[in-house]
Amino acid sequence: MSYAIIGLGRIGTAIAQAFADQGIEVAVAGRRPVDALAARIGPSLVPQRIEDAIEADVVILAVPFGAHEDVARAAESWQGKIVIDAMNAYGVPVKELDGLPSSAAVAKAFPGAKLVKAFNHLPAATLAQGPTTPHGGRRVVFVASDDEPASASVAALVDRLGFAPVDLGKIGEGGLLVQARGNTWAQLVFQDLVKFD
């Protein structure tokens, strides 16, 4: 399976570092050149243009929320791809989302894709600390999707990156616990939880 991260801001960089730490190859792209940053993070990061990176089987969206539609327009088809929504829509009026959870609104921009919410609930600085906490145990990453096989696939990736995946179920059900709505954050956002195996 091939992977890409679109956006190397603070969240995208933290996710990219997790890939690099495990030696997993991942394409990286952004609205600005990412070559120098990718080289600093690790050799398993492959800088590409957005148009090339979105050819990956799994595309992680780590762009500002308002830019996701630009990414969606970069592909002729999203059919069968897994798109991981690592964004937050804090401050976006609920009306602009048609009253939907932000991930459901994002899914509409990526027809044919299997959308999974993950990597968005932790602040970038916490995510950048990596999967293992100073007290032992693995840092939790929540996963939510309306597509169970896609959710399982992303949970397996989260585990491979060293984090502890916790499946919240469907986006409009347990997934609401990690969504921003207007100017409010859901209950599990910012919760730095640890799983001890």
TrEMBL record:
Q: Does the keyword Ligase apply?
A: no
User: What would be one Pfam family of this protein?
Assistant: F420_oxidored
UniProt KW keywords: Oxidoreductase
Residue ranges of the Pyrroline-5-carboxylate reductase catalytic N-terminal domain? 3-88
Q: Which SUPFAM superfamilies match?
A: NAD(P)-binding Rossmann-fold domains (SSF51735)
- Which GO molecular-function terms appear in the entry? oxidoreductase activity
PANTHER family attached to this UniProt entry: DUDULIN-RELATED
Can you say what this protein is called? Pyrroline-5-carboxylate reductase catalytic N-terminal domain-containing protein
